[in-house]
Design goal:
Helix content of chain A: 40-55%
Order of helices and strands of chain A: HHHHHHHHHEHEHEHEEEHEEEEEEH
GO molecular function (chain B): guanyl-nucleotide exchange factor activity; translation initiation factor activity
Distance between the termini of chain A: 8 Å
Strand content of chain B: 15-25%
Structural class of chain A: alpha/beta
Radius of gyration of chain A: 24 Å
InterPro entries (chain B): eIF2B_gamma, LbH_EIF2B3/5, NTP_transferase_dom, Nucleotide-diphossugar_trans
GO cellular component, one term (chain B): eukaryotic translation initiation factor 2B complex
Shape of chain B: elongated
GO biological process, one term (chain B): cytoplasmic translational initiation
Helix content of chain B: 10-25%
Oligomer: heterodimer
Protein name (chain B): Translation initiation factor eIF2B subunit gamma
Number of strands of chain B: 32
Strand content of chain A: 5-15%
Shape of chain A: globular
Largest sheet of chain B: 7 strands, mixed
Largest interface: A-B, 42 and 34 residues
Chain lengths: 493, 465
């Protein structure tokens, strides 16, 4: 894997060298393309650093260090030469999360993603320009936003993005339009489900893709995917797991050698996607279930929050293996996802109790363990999960109940966050409106001045409240997350 | 390609023969545009670039040659001609163009005038991976008096019973009153899965359907289904809840009505999309369910789903009866595209004699090339292309089609005058329908308060006071 990556990078460099040597007068487009390729190369190398690990970690320790030194030297030389040539390319702010490069020799400018800078008009203008270039309509903000969260986007479910698209969607592949609709309406919800659905849609896109003449599949397909990703981002901000999946795909596409025929390349890509899902999601779930079952003893009372596909899977597996336990499902408004979790567990035959989050301190004395799912695990050990998770962890800590977080490694993310304000997602505020006994109190909430409805989606839990993180690599403490990330990066050299 | 549009323009207009005996229904002028311009305009506005038009040879000829019925549509129209005499139902027509259908299709009828936001219907089709998604609208009472009708029209006979679930989007039950002899029978399987069902009767089917390609393939093999509205859609709605096992004959007692569909199982209709296993995996991991209260997964595990979007605001007319035609003519002037700068209510080529400015209400529409003399009063009417209206004519609440000549002193109220008719001087028409090319004698008195008459041939007597 490491070798092919290096040779792939070298290949591209040769192409560029050849073009320069031929001494043709490079037209403006070619120059732009050159710049883009160089950028992608650089990104490709960085992505290799930051992309996902194979299941076995400890393999290539010794030969990796030699290759590492070689690559470092080459990277340095390239960077110095590039900087003298390039100057300022004026790249618009991307939605990539700021990466921590392995060598600190050069400070990398960390760019904040646009979806958390909505109150800055310059950022909005840049975003509008970028969307216009990609021919994607922009979804408009809805309603009055609470001032603490006015830097985030807030959409209404009643105004889908498809309103502004033409109906037989020509610019965007129909599978992606369908996916975007399903995201924005909440039909596909949950970190794993969204990633799998995304990869499924990408499979359709790749199968239907034909390389235009004079283009290479490895470059053109990545460019084709960019507007789709912007579209999906507009429908609903991407999750960390989706971001990692996209990075993986882009890396795989860029690494397609140019001599591959189109059909072979497509087959290889489809295969890669299937492998990714199989390894990172399905097998990881099995591994996590296996580890967790050791932690579940007979007579346990397990508390779960909301509907996490992984935690449900673990509990169902444990029940099938014959462990005797009962489950307390804690739920919260407005999503009330716990009802779905309750249905799945009861269908299996597990005896469950259902409470709302306001009763969690009442029910906790009965609980022996808390199992939580995670949306993402941040690089400083914080757990990003559904809003309310940090409350549960806090109260559990107060009662001395162990909190176990289950998370696959592909959800590990290099962001660092210590509070839930900076980067979050605001859901449709109209979800908070409820009709009881024929009365809807919040019916005209927009008319009331200075009344804001806040429907947060995520919150972060500090690592002090989490006792154990169960991943497919084993059971690690929360503070080991940055180690895993670093090992992932090193492993792929 | 996501969707292909198909326009069904071969219908005969059997419920308004007075108007269609000479002009085919798709070419009837509504607001001075041929009727089929409206659905085509809807498709064009939304972003379609080509449409398959299924029509008769006569209509095709009129479309391409007749300047009065010119359609200024920028889309590419792929016209397929079928025999007009044959009893070709809409489903038969789809079977006929089976080869051209490459993706999911959007079937529109030529007599639909609506300003619906089409993305609402198509979004249901996309988001839920539905087999069929259709559009319905709350029916409006037609208030205008219709020539040739005594009293208010009774709307009893052909009611449609439509059952939707709690969200109002999923279609659970559809039957026409004509098919229900003994009463409304709802299968237990439906009630078990959807305990709360709203049954509505006052809905107008807009005959706009999004169908999966698998359905068109299914139609190609099953030649027994001939009408989309009458047979295919109720069949699909029923199929949602039938048993999914292959090779097992269904035991339901209500199956006696569709004996011709024996042996067809759900599996025939359900064509798995690509990577079905992956979709299933995503669905399992997703914490969403379309219903709650029972133990089953989203959609009750059913693969066949029918959805309906019910419009409660906005225009939706199906111009298949005379009253609908008149109502549509009134409403069309209120529709948004009449305010487009390109389409003048009073056409610039109008020749007006400005001695006494003729009074024209703002809700009238006057076509190109008209000659309107002075001292005329035109209120709430539609006047077609190349008509001549002489002095002292009062036209109220009427529809005047193309090429009509109205001599001076006429008084026309609540009437429909078809193309190329000549109304003699001093004629007084109230609530009449004058057929194509007819002549009304001068000083003809056709008070028709008691008998709202229809003049089709000269030999028919006038209704005299």
């Amino acid at each position: 894997m490491a070798d092919s990556g290096v040779s792939g990078g070298a290949d591209k460099k040769d192409n560029i060298e050849r073009e320069k040597i031929e001494g043709k007068e490079l037209t403006k487009e070619e120059k732009q393309r050159l710049r883009k390729e160089k950028k992608q190369q650089k990104k490709g190398k960085e992505k290799k650093d930051a992309s996902l690990p194979q299941v076995s970690v400890a393999e290539t320790a010794a030969p990796a260090s030699q290759l590492k030194a070689e690559r470092r030297a080459r990277q340095e030389a390239e960077r110095t030469s590039k900087q003298s040539k390039k100057g300022d390319t004026g790249q618009p702010a991307t939605t990539s999360k700021p990466k921590i490069p392995p060598n600190e020799l050069q400070p990398v400018v960390k760019r904040l993603p646009e979806h958390i800078q909505v109150d800055d008009p310059d950022v909005l203008k840049k975003l509008a320009k970028k969307l216009e270039r990609q021919q994607i309509p922009r979804r408009l903000d809805y309603g009055y936003k609470v001032s603490l969260f006015s830097h985030l986007l807030q959409y209404s479910r009643k105004a889908p993005l498809t309103q502004q698209l033409s109906i037989p969607s020509a610019v965007i592949h129909p599978a992606i339009v369908r996916l975007g609709l399903q995201y924005s309406q909440g039909i596909v919800a949950g970190s794993n489900a969204r990633s799998i659905a995304l990869l499924h849609a990408f499979k359709q896109v790749i199968s239907d893709y034909t390389t235009p003449s004079n283009e290479e599949l490895s470059r053109d397909l990545v460019n084709k995917l960019k507007p789709y990703i912007s579209f999906l981002n507009q429908c609903r901000p991407l999750s960390a797991s989706m971001g990692n999946a996209i990075k993986y795909i882009k890396k795989e596409i860029s690494n397609i050698p140019s001599q591959f025929k189109e059909d072979d390349a497509k087959k290889k890509l489809l295969n890669c996607i299937e492998c990714f899902i199989e390894e990172k999601i399905v097998l990881a779930a099995k591994a996590i279930a296996k580890s967790s079952i050791e932690k579940i003893n007979d007579g346990d009372v397990i508390l779960v929050y909301g509907c996490s596909s992984l935690v449900n899977h673990i509990l169902c597996e444990a029940f099938e293996k014959g462990r005797k336990f009962r489950v307390i499902v804690v739920d919260s408004r407005p999503r009330l996802e716990g009802r779905e979790a309750l249905r799945r567990l009861v269908q299996k035959g597990i005896s469950c109790t259902y409470v709302l989050i306001s009763a969690v301190s009442y029910i906790l004395p009965e609980v022996s363990k808390v199992f939580l799912g995670a949306h993402a695990l941040l690089a400083n050990g914080y757990v990003m999960s559904r809003v309310g998770t940090s409350q549960i962890a806090l109260v559990a800590k107060a009662f001395n109940v162990p909190v176990l977080v289950c998370c696959e490694t592909y959800k590990f993310c290099e962001r660092v966050q210590t509070d839930s304000f900076v980067s979050n997602e605001l859901d449709d505020p109209d979800d908070l409106i409820v009709t009881r006994k024929g009365e809807t109190q919040l019916k005209d909430w927009q008319q009331v001045p200075r009344l804001g409805l806040l429907n947060l989606v995520y919150d972060v839990t500090p690592p002090d409240f989490v006792d154990l993180v169960i991943t497919d690599l084993g059971m690690i403490p929360c503070t080991s997350v940055p180690v895993v990330l670093r090992v992932k990066n090193v492993d792929l050299l | 390609m996501e969707l292909q549009a198909v326009l069904m323009a071969a219908g005969g207009g059997s419920r308004m023969t007075d108007l269609t005996y000479n002009t085919p229904k798709p070419m009837l002028p509504v607001g001075n545009k041929p009727l089929m311009w409206y659905p085509l305009n809807l498709l064009e506005r939304v972003g379609f670039e080509e449409v398959i038009v299924i029509t008769t040879r006569e209509v095709h000829k009129m479309m391409s040659t007749d300047p009065k019925t010119k359609l200024d549509i920028k889309m590419k129209l792929d016209v397929v001609c079928i025999q007009e005499d044959g009893d070709m139902g809409t489903a038969d027509a789809l079977r006929h163009i089976h080869q051209k259908v490459k993706t999911d299709i959007l079937v529109v009828s030529c007599d639909l005038i609506t300003d619906v936001a089409l993305h609402e219907v198509v979004d249901l089709f996309r988001a839920h991976n539905a087999t069929v998604a259709m559009l319905m609208s709350k029916a409006h009472e037609f208030t205008e008096t219709v020539p040739g009708q005594k009293g208010k029209k009774k709307t009893a006979e052909q009611r449609d019973f439509v059952g939707v679930d709690q969200s109002g989007k999923r279609l659970l039950f559809m039957a026409n009153e004509a098919d229900l002899e003994d009463g409304l029978i709802v299968r237990r399987s439906i009630i078990r899965k959807h305990p709360r069902m709203h049954i509505k009767t006052g809905l107008v089917d807009a005959h706009l359907y999004c169908l999966k390609k698998a359905v068109v393939d299914f139609l190609a093999e099953n030649k027994s289904i001939s009408s989309i509205r009458g047979e295919l859609v109720p069949f699909l709605v029923r199929k949602q809840f039938s048993k999914m096992t292959s090779g097992q004959k269904r035991m339901d007692d209500t199956e006696t009505v569709d004996q011709k569909n024996d042996g067809l199982t759900n599996d025939d209709l359900f064509f798995p999309s690509r990577d079905e296993a992956l979709l299933q995996l995503a669905q399992e991991r997703s914490c969403w369910n379309d219903h709650r209260g029972d133990m089953s997964e989203a959609y009750h595990g059913g693969k066949l789903r029918c959805y309906v979007h019910i419009m409660d605001q906005g225009l939706c007319y199906r111009v298949n009866t005379l009253s609908a035609y008149i109502e549509a003519n009134r409403m069309v002037s209120h529709m948004w595209f009449c305010h487009r700068s390109a389409h003048f209510v009073v056409h610039p080529l109008l020749m007006l004699h400005f001695v006494f400015h003729p009074q024209m209400g703002s809700d009238s529409m006057i076509g190109a090339g008209c000659h309107v003399a002075d001292k005329t009063s035109i209120k709430r009417s539609t006047i077609g292309i190349s008509t001549t209206v002489k002095e002292k004519v009062k036209v109220t609440n009427s529809i005047i089609m193309h090429g009509v000549t109205i001599e001076e002193g006429c008084n026309i109220q609540g009437s429909v005058i078809c193309s190329n008719a000549v109304i003699g001087r001093g004629a007084d028409l109230k609530y009449c329908l004058v057929g194509n090319g007819q002549r009304i004698e001068p000083e003809g008195d056709t008070y028709s308060n008691t008998k709202k008459s229809i003049l089709l041939e000269v030999s028919v007597t006038f209704g005299l006071v």
